[in-house]
Amino acid sequence: MTEPLLKIEDLEVIYSTDRAEVNAINGVSLEVNSGEVRGLVGESGCGKSTLAFAIMRYLDKNGKITGGRILFKGEDLRKKTEAEMEDIWGRHLGMIYQDPTASLNPSLPVGDQIAEVATAHGLASRDEAIQKAIDLLDRVHIRDPEDIVDRYPHELSGGMRQRVGIAAGLIGEPELLVMDEPTTNLDVTTEARILDIVEELTEELNSAFLYITHDLGVIARIGDAVEVMYAGQVVERGSIEELFEEQYHPYTKLLLRSIPDPEGSKGSLQEVPGSMVDLTDLPRGCNFSTRCPYRGEECFKSEPSLDDKSESHSARCFIAPIEGKVETVSESKDTGKEPIGDEPPELKREDSILAVKDLKKYFGGGSGWFPWADSDPVRAVDGVNLDLERSKTLGVVGESGCGKTTLARTIIGLSRATEGEIDFAGKDITAPISRRSPKTLKRIQIVFQDPRSTLNPKRTVGQAIARPLALHGDFARSEIPKKTARLLRSVGLDPSLADRFPDQLSGGQKQRVATARAFATNPALVLHDEPTSSLDVSVQATILNLLLELQEGSGTSYLFISHDLSVVRHISDYIAVMYLGHLVEYGRTGEIFSPPYHPYTEALLSAIPVPDPGLSRKRIRLKGSVPSAVDPPSGCVFHTRCPRKIGEVCESESPPARGEGEHKIHCHITRDELSEVEPVLG
Amino acid sequence: MEKSNLDLSPGLLDRIKNGFSHVLKLREKPLGLAGLIIIVFWILITILAPYITPYGATQFSQEKFAPPSPQHPFGTDRWGRDLFTRIIAGSRTAFALALSATFLGLVGGTALGLSAAYFGGWTEEILGRLMDILMSFPALLIAMFVLGVLGPGTINVIIVIGIAHIPRIGRVARSATLQVKNQEFVEAARVRGESDLYIMGAEILPNILDTLGVEGAIRFAYSIFLSASLGFLGLGVQPPTPDWGLMISESRSYLQIAPWLAIFPALAIASMVLGANFLAEGLEEVTGGKQ
Fold this sequence. Notes:
The complex is a heterodimer of chains A (682) and B (291). Chain A is α/β, with parallel strands linked by helices. Helix content of chain A is 30%, strand content 22%. The two termini of chain A are 38 Å apart. Chain B has 291 residues and is an all-alpha fold. In chain B, 73% of the residues lie in helices and 0% in strands. Chain B has helices spanning 10-25, 30-52, 83-119, 121-135, 139-150, 154-181, 184-191, 196-232, 244-251, 260-287.
């Protein structure tokens, strides 16, 4: 048994704030060996990023390591001086951040920034280092790396910047690379490619990775072992195979089940009850005891230790192993939810609630003052046709920049359609908001993406919900408080929260309030623009359950926009796949997830991280990144990246819709040929 | 089951509490605290003026150019008026002028800046260029010009200083609005069909009040300074009203024999301007301030 590369012993970190001391890390011990990818997962606030920063000695000023040792190659990093750390950073120990923009200098070409790591350690001359940077950029699949090295960070897309950050982390060939959610802000297709690179590097260079993520699917794909963190402690640790096979700690068990299964279907998701324990005031006994559905008396009395359950699997729990099947706990159900609508709207299921006909939305270009300065417009949405039945959910998926958000904004009237028609319940409503009737306005609502900005910070929850009631309701003002309370209950919140301001709520609670606000006007159609993308998976599960429940009670139709195919599959009856402003495939959820696929859908599906390490899937990786919507490719917009391009016809003619019933694939390849592929998911 | 605390008034109460907590937080900012102390000191002086002034502000006496003494702590001027009394009485003039002018500037600047940012497009272009033009002249120059036409006087000074503040406050209001107007809660208000006036007043304005408060404190300091300058030039408040700028102006000819006549009003102006600026600095820190 050789000495581990990184060995952390009983690490403790405390942040001092105005109010109290935050116990961010409470005795973490872990090891990372060479050639190993060790995953570190947990909800936000569990201390996983703090751990990374502590290892790197990058903690903020108010953060302090109060105990333990960080042994890297046998030496304690806590005892190193700043100058000694500079020798280690980049060369022996590297870090890749979640936000690549913050770690790149905006005034230096990216090539120099990558090369700098090598030249600073005297590993190479500048020319050699630049050459190495070019090779590395090629490795991370950046097209034309010779050209890219001379570019500045602002000239690159987010995905490219992230890959530049990864190249800069790799050039010193550090023995250990700490990756803090490196793919969280990236599209699944780019993420899949970066995970490929991590795998290659462990094999070729015997590098070690400490891979921090909230996504168990990612870990299942690349990890060798995983540490599950909760409240600054490792609560479960095990090899990937064992941990995904059986979870000893209730937290791991619940967390894993809260992920929507890409192979699953509509239905309630497991929820993790409650929210992260207060780190300034940890409970006596087990930290998870405040949320644990299996807790016993013992759990409140003393703190469990991290005990071995098998040779490569340990958990910090008195109760484990939990026998039997977990009941699906839907926490919100116990709080006595009320149906959301006042009266069930007249349901005629087959009626179309929303019909979008040849919708186009171009930004900019055209009508400037000076004809010679006119530029081409950005074709954000370029001829989309959609149809949504009453009480159904249509999911819209695609990579960032595919036009899905613009589509929603145009439907709701925040953007003015350039061309085409939007019909709502048989009525043309193509006009922007200012020209829509109050009746139309109240019947279509939207729930936005960002819980931090979705509520007015200066208004209470009660005010936020009461306002649409006062504006559109046809009842006495004195009834508003009652109705507000009822709406809060129907989204699973206690009516006493009405007095709170948004900064006193968690992200999930804010999204619930936003949902209640949208439902206050009793809408027939609610658009959801990535409502769960900035939430933890456990919180996401509660929101998705809520949305399904609300739909069942009120018969409201949903247009659900997301980049996450698993989420969309979970909630949708129909799915539209968008690419570069065009619809490439449309059909019932089941039809989208089984052959025939559009080649783009197939690639998207193969990139989803699935929390099942045993699953081997075919890998389809797209070349390059999404082309510019100012000058989209001719013919089929996907031909520049299509792995199944058949020839010139793809470049010259726009593809026909190959349909069978409602399922339509826009491709030059015939339906029969498309049907011949193996299914991507089991 | 129904709870009475669903009543919507706690919002306002909390907002006031919130504003108060900003002031409390100033304790930890030495500069802001110093500013707060100076300003509170002056406010107390202003309120208590009639009780602490030993003489009348325009009360003549035979003791002309008396140097500071126990009877006249700051000395007397050429009419034998007690300077201590006049400085204290002058603080009322200064406050009245500066507060009114700042208020005028805040109302005008916020209305213009907020609507320019909110509507964008042509409205923003036209308003923006107008502000630029106004701002390209020194405020004092504009004030002198306008007062030259309108004639001096307290009301005219307030109007002129207020107008001189509008472009700067407008600019601050505009940039604060730009940060708020594309947030999702504003779009949610548009989606449910709120009027523009409601969105500007009820959704955006409360979120830029902190920034405007800081700017208001800075403009207050500037108003003191500007009104003193105008007083000095004889364009502001007219004698015999006690005004610090005017006092300095009148002291010019006697600098050699009675330097206290210039020193004490100058100190008064300086302390109030500095106090307001420090306070602005402190407020900016505790509110997370302006951009």
